[in-house]
Design brief:
The chain is of the alpha/beta class. It folds into three domains: 331 residues, Rossmann fold; 58 residues, no CATH class; 261 residues, Nucleotidyltransferase, domain 5 (2-Layer Sandwich), CATH 3.30.420. It is built from 21 helices and 29 strands. The strands form nine sheets. Strands 7-8-11-6-12-15-5-18 form an eight-stranded mixed β-sheet, with helices on both faces. The C terminus is likely disordered.
Length: 697
């Protein structure tokens, strides 16, 4: 190879990237790697040098790529779309013709970033080294120590299965006695066409075309390959050889599938499919640790568009990487999130076919314009938001779009996801809420509030329960106005059955709603909640009773759970239960003959109506902020669990918070959502004095 002065210019633009893949291009042209005679000193020297590069990486023209990247570029063949015409960056949204061919991979700037990020997560580096790489990523100094695993969110069709298979094969080929585990929720993501299948094809390619041939005489199955050969000692077969191996495991019904296996690399492929992702990760992570030492690395990959049962787990781990020993990046992708942390992300705009040049430089700006134009066409043409949401999920510009869950629910998922991102990023679920203990004052029997100043209460903030302690706590977003008029506040309650198994994930869910009060700045919003499952249903109902008295509110609830009425009957407080919303039932179910009772009995028609009312409430316009941005009711929700449920909702799942909200919406609609409540005008000083004494005495 001739000397190269520079492979990247001062602006960070790649100008001669074929220097990184000369061996791959040579094989593509000649169908062999070296003309040297097999076994000759020159042949041995050539393959030893190539092995060194695959282990240590390769520098040329003042730039360096990692060993995995070098192996990927030179010793794999992938199917790649090539423009039938002249290679160029497409500037408009017209479709261009192309065809797929089997070639050595192109150099991509996005791959350069990814392979380096993976290496730094594992091995660490100095700040100077990181800055000189010019990755276009932002990482804080304290995370450059190494010893981290990686979580990766990515758009579709970015070649990550090829890259993953190359990493697995490179470890198998360069590290004797190593174990690589490729894990997936279901075997269809592993073989015959999944990552394990690709890895097997790369292993066969090495045996057929390189000096690194490895027999697999003892183990050569589609789910398990091992580099070893059979010899005989005193007539007995003995296993010898390189002894590196790759195993494919499924975690769908067994999160402990990899427990106890001492691996060099463990890959979770299509992790958004795992409905037990956190359990699988925590059980597997121990296999890569020895005391304070990290002995291997995990890579958790999720493809947008393929996130289902594991979306909540994946998103939580992705946006809280430090808590899970995952390499944290500054979130440069989501809007106004650069001061928060997240995992690695490969957006749709990076290395989009038709929008990168022959050196692998991405034309991000035009790729983004192309995608936004496509979305605008869909927005105008589609009859529902489903098609647009699906497009955004498949081709995300930022992580929050990748975590959209498109299902049969008709809630405004895009807007809800943005609100969820904001709440997580700004920690609004903590800043805007106050966990409290409710109690009765002995002298007056009035309900009082005790603030949780020591942080001992544990509100349940997530849809998927993270803690064994599921008692939960009352959370207040806004205290009640003193002497609140009847009807200003309403309560929606979804009870759980006391006789359900303790292992059930069903929780009691309660929301307190504030209507419109003349002269009050806040209205049509959630002001308190209680999510939890204490030891008995009476414990829950006791808090519910005190909430109702504190806010002078009636409780609307699903009345098929009889323990609720039994409790309030025993307490002689049936007046705290709301009677059946007859107007809504009559409007929804023709000729309804249900007797007048407390609460409401939900059926499919009423649930249809409740979902419609909830959607209308979420999208109700409240105001305009200082940036002329419309504020909707959903922008006043700071409950992470509720936002997660709204995004994930479907009729088959268990969504306690949504059930409570649907009940609440039925009673709001029944009374008239725009009703204005009046209150006697009070002197400001007297008002606030009474307010403070009633709450904190």
């Amino acid at each position: 190879m001739s000397a190269v002065d520079s492979i990247r210019n001062s602006d960070g633009i790649w100008i001669n990237t074929n220097c990184f893949r000369e061996e791959g291009l040579s094989f593509q042209k000649n169908k062999y790697y070296t003309p040297e005679a097999w076994g000759s000193p020159a042949w041995v020297e050539y393959w030893n040098e190539q092995l060194r590069r695959c282990k240590e990486g390769y520098s040329v023209g003042g730039a360096y790529i990692t060993g995995h990247h070098y192996f990927y570029l030179n010793f794999t063949n992938i199917m790649l779309t090539k423009d039938k015409g002249e290679e160029k960056v497409v500037k408009d949204i017209k479709k261009t013709s192309g065809s797929k061919v089997s070639v050595c991979p192109d150099f991509w700037d996005g791959d350069y970033n990814y392979f380096h990020a993976l290496d730094i997560a594992r091995n660490g580096c100095t700040r100077e080294y990181f800055d000189n790489l010019n990755l276009g990523l932002t990482v804080q100094d304290r995370f450059l120590t190494g010893g981290y695993h990686m979580i990766v969110g990515k758009a579709r069709r970015k070649g990550f299965s090829y890259k993953s298979a190359a990493i697995c094969t490179n470890i198998y080929n360069t590290e004797p006695d190593s174990l690589v585990i490729i894990g997936a929720f279901d075997k269809k993501f592993l073989y015959p066409r999944g990552t394990m299948g690709m890895t097997s094809r790369f292993m066969d390619f090495l045996n057929a075309n390189t000096g690194w041939r490895k027999a697999r005489e003892f183990v050569d199955k589609q789910e398990h390959r091992k580099a070893s050969y059979k010899s005989f000692k005193s007539g007995v077969p003995v296993e010898n050889g390189y002894m590196s191996e790759i195993i494919a495991l499924t975690f769908g019904d067994n999160p402990d599938a990899a427990r106890g296996k001492d691996a060099k690399l463990i890959l979770f492929e299509e992790a958004g499919k795992f409905n037990n992702l956190k359990d699988s990760y925590m059980a597997t992570k121990e296999s890569l640790e020895d005391g304070a030492f990290i002995t291997g690395q995990m890579i958790i990959q999720g493809t947008s568009g393929d996130m289902e049962g594991g979306t909540i787990d994946f998103a939580d781990m992705y946006y809280n990487p430090e808590a899970y020993d995952l390499f944290p990046f500054n979130n440069i992708w989501d809007e106004n999130a650069e001061h928060s942390l997240c995992g690695y992300f490969h957006p749709e705009t990076l290395n989009l076919v038709g929008f990168y040049d022959k050196e692998g430089n991405s034309d991000v700006e035009n790729a983004k314009n192309y995608e936004l134009n496509k979305r605008e066409v869909l927005r105008k043409a589609a009859n529902s938001s489903y098609v647009l949401q699906k497009r955004m999920q498949e081709k995300p510009l930022c992580p929050s779009e990748a975590f959209l869950t498109v299902s049969t629910n008709d809630f405004p998922i895009v807007e809800l996801q943005h609100q969820l991102d904001l709440v997580r990023r700004e920690n609004l679920h903590v800043k805007k809420s106050m966990p409290v203990t409710l109690y009765r004052e002995e002298e007056t029997n009035k309900v009082k509030v005790k603030l949780d100043l020591n942080g001992t209460l544990k509100p349940i903030n997530s849809y998927k329960i993270k803690d064994e302690d599921i008692r939960g706590s009352v959370v207040i977003y806004e205290y009640p106005v003193p002497d609140a008029p009847k009807g200003l506040y309403k309560i929606g309650y979804d009870p759980y059955r006391q006789n359900q198994a303790l292992s059930s994930t069903s929780l009691g869910a309660t929301y307190v709603y504030k209507g419109v009060l003349q002269g009050s700045a806040t209205y049509d919003c959630i002001v308190a909640s209680y999510i939890g499952r204490p030891n008995t249903s009476d414990d829950y109902n006791r808090n519910l009773e005190m909430l109702a008295e504190l806010y002078n509110a009636e409780i609307g609830y699903e009345n098929e759970v009889t323990e609720v009425r039994s409790y309030f009957t025993k307490r002689k407080k049936l007046h705290l239960l709301a009677v059946q919303p007859d107007a809504i039932i009559s409007a929804t179910i023709k000729n309804s003959k249900v007797a007048r009772v407390y609460g409401i009995h939900m059926n499919e028609k009423l649930k249809d109506a409740g979902e419609k009312y909830l959607k209308q409430w979420l999208l109700t316009e409240k105001n305009i902020d200082e940036n002329d941005k419309l504020i909707l009711n959903l922008n006043t929700i700071y409950d992470i669990g509720l936002l997660e449920e709204l995004i994930q909702y479907n009729r088959k799942g268990n969504f306690d918070r949504i059930s409570a909200m649907i009940v609440l919406m039925m009673f709001i609609e029944n009374d008239g959502e725009n009703k204005i409540h009046n209150k006697k005008q009070e002197d400001d000083e007297k008002f606030w004095d009474s307010f403070a004494r009633s709450l904190f005495r």
